[in-house]
Specification:
Strand order of the largest sheet: 7-6-8-9-10-11-13-12
Number of helices: 16
Number of domains: 2
Shape: globular
Structural class: alpha/beta
Largest sheet: 8 strands, mixed
Distance between the termini: 29 Å
């Protein structure tokens, strides 16, 4: 059964007003399925080697194909053209620019590598001509029914969630790591030290959600800290990792953490990349829960509050707040606690943050069945209620 994606109305609205789209997203998040729903007049999938080679030899074929569609009787509007994995033949973006400028066609391009899309020397990003959207794994509101245990261990990739058997899910996640993270991403980024990169991927998965320590990881992997930073850049550019910056402005605290945190885009992929089994200690499940809440907040902001962003706050000598959503109206601090009975003690750092930066409300995200009032300014909410809570504060 196909699940409607929250991005679909936004995609349809931009197409209806005559815009073209650049749809970014990691592999297997459902971009191709979304394209198939659009009913394009011309659909090109560059995942096929034969199709890719045809356009590599002569990109101008695309213009001729669009011209043939426009010549059809009764054609009144520019045809809709979808090109899947456009980073595989970057020259098609130049052809697309010409057709868009002459109002000959509308396009939906998809890409799973922002590295090639943003940094390729020969790639035309069509500035001002396309709307850039992002398709992530399922959000909380899209996820099929299931418990928190499944969400944390298996993640939210559509194909994985559609698989019922636990062993099959595990095999699919391992395959994703081995064939994509460790092979395709490495080849695309021209990583020369294969062994070091493989060790880095495993460590990056285990360190996901923690403040990045390039020096320590470089010692474990056996390469320089500069190389480790470049490896993280590769993961971010290939849409596998999310970089979260800290809140660093403060009047009273001079030693706030300035290093970034990195989240892998899916908790199931992160667990598989870390080569962990399904029987994890409670402390590790708590770490995955914190990552899951952070990822859900990122996805919420992308879909509903593009002016908001996820941050964190940490004083090495004192309090810290797991996640902070910075939005035009101020800050929303969020603590994450895996358990169904949070207490007032769990809200103490939220109060410190609110006193420092102003604000009237903080959240503790937990696994309680219903919301709990912890203090006058802090409410504990079930993890399933997070999207609604964010909407009420950010003002969607």
């Amino acid at each position: 059964m196909l699940i409607a994606r929250q991005l679909e109305p936004l995609l349809a609205r931009h197409l209806a007003r005559g815009k073209s789209i650049l749809l970014l997203g990691p592999r297997q998040t459902g971009k191709t399925t979304l394209l198939n729903k659009l009913g394009a007049n011309l659909a090109v999938s560059l995942a096929s080697p034969a199709v890719r080679q045809r356009y590599e030899r002569d990109p101008s074929i695309l213009a001729d194909e669009v011209g043939a569609i426009r010549a059809q009787p009764a054609r009144r509007t520019p045809p809709l053209v979808t090109i899947d994995e456009v980073q595989k033949v970057p020259a098609l973006m130049d052809v697309g620019q010409d057709l868009i400028d002459r109002r000959q066609a509308r396009f939906v391009f998809t890409g799973s590598s922002a590295r090639k899309l943003r940094r390729g020397r020969e790639l035309n990003l069509l500035p001002g001509r396309v709307v850039v959207l992002r398709l992530d794994p399922f959000t909380l509101e899209e996820l099929p029914p299931g418990g928190l245990h499944d969400v944390l261990l298996d993640g939210a990739l559509p194909a994985v969630r559609a698989t019922k058997d636990t062993a099959d899910r595990e095999a699919d996640l391992r395959s994703y790591v081995e064939t994509y993270l460790e092979e395709e991403v490495r080849q695309e980024a021209l990583v020369r030290n294969v062994g070091a990169y493989g060790r880095f991927v495993e460590l990056a998965a285990r360190e996901a959600g923690r403040v990045a320590n390039y020096t320590r990881i470089s010692q474990d992997v056996g390469v320089s800290s500069v190389t480790i930073q470049s490896y993280y850049d590769i993961l971010c550019d290939c849409l596998i990792a999310e970089r979260v910056e800290p809140v660093t402005r403060s009047v009273s605290r001079k030693k706030l953490t300035k290093a970034s945190r990195f989240l892998l885009f899916d908790t199931g992929v992160a667990r598989a990349a870390a080569r962990e089994g399904r029987r994890l200690p409670l402390s590790r499940m708590g770490e995955l829960f914190e990552q899951f809440v952070g990822l859900e907040a990122i996805r919420f902001c992308r879909l509903h509050a593009p002016d908001a962003r996820l941050r964190f706050w940490r004083d090495p000598d004192g309090p810290e707040v797991d996640w902070v959503i910075e939005h035009p109206g101020g800050f929303l601090p969020i603590e994450v606690k895996l358990g169904d009975r949070p207490t007032e003690r769990d809200a103490r750092h939220l109060h410190v943050f609110l006193e420092e930066y102003g604000g009237r409300h903080g959240l503790v995200v937990c696994s309680a069945p219903r919301p709990l009032r912890l203090t006058r300014m802090v409410t504990a909410i079930p993890w399933q209620d997070l999207p609604g809570a964010l909407a009420s504060v950010v003002g969607v």
